[in-house]
Amino acid sequence: MAEETDGGPVTLRRSIPAGAERRAAELCWGAFGRKLGPALNPPEKAVPFLAGQLRADRAVCAFAGGELVALAEYRLGGQAPAKGSAAAVLRTYGPLRGLYRLALLALFENRPKRGRLVLASIAVDPGFRGHGIGSLLVEEVSAIAAERGCREIRLDVIDANPRAKALYERLGFATVKTTRTPYLRRLMGFGAVTTMGRSVAPKGIPAR
C-alpha cells in the first residue's frame, strides 16, 4: 500500500519481510534502547535478541526507497502473546542475569483483553521522523483493529517521551490512567506511565 508523506512516498506492509528482522530490531532499539537498556543491554546482545522475538505477523512496516524506515508492533486480545519467553531471555543472558532481566521486562508486559488491540511500539528511523510516518502507521494499525472486530486501541507512553504523547493526542487518543513509578526514575529513566485509548469503529460502521 503506497502512501504519500511530506517526506516523499512511503509503502506500508502488514508484516515484517523475511530477512528484515535485524533491521526491524535495530529500529526498535534505536527508539527504545534507553527504556529497555537496563533489561536488555548490551546492544550487541539486545539487537539479536529482539530480532529473534519479533512477531512478523503483528507488525506494520513502512518502506521508503525500498528501505525499512519504520514499524509498529501490536498485540491482539484473545491471542497468544508475542514470541518472547523466559527461556529465550535465560538462554541469551544466562540464568543469574536472566532472572533479573525477566523481572524488569515484566514491567512492560501488557496483554490486551479480548476485543482490544494494544499498540506495543512505534519506531521510526531518526532521518524520517517528523514526516507523518508515525501517523500513517497508527491509522493502518487502527484499520487492522477494525477488521479484527476490536472496539478499542490502547497504548502506554512514558513521561520521558512527551513528543509521542502529543502525537497520540493529535490522533485522537485520550488518557485512561497514569501510573506513577518514581522508583523507576533512576533505574529506567522514567517516573510515570500513561495509558491512552481510542475507540475503534468496526469495519463497515462509520465512527461517531
TrEMBL record:
Q: What class of enzyme is it?
A: transferase
- Asked whether the keyword Transferase is assigned, the reply is yes
What keywords does the record list, in alphabetical order? Acyltransferase, Transferase
Q: Which domain of life is it from?
A: Bacteria
Q: Name one Pfam family in it.
A: Acetyltransf_1
Matching entries from InterPro entries are given as:
Acyl_CoA_acyltransferase, GNAT_dom, YpeA/RimI_acetyltransf
Q: Which PANTHER family match?
A: ACETYLTRANSFERASE (PTHR43420)
The protein here is known as: GNAT family N-acetyltransferase
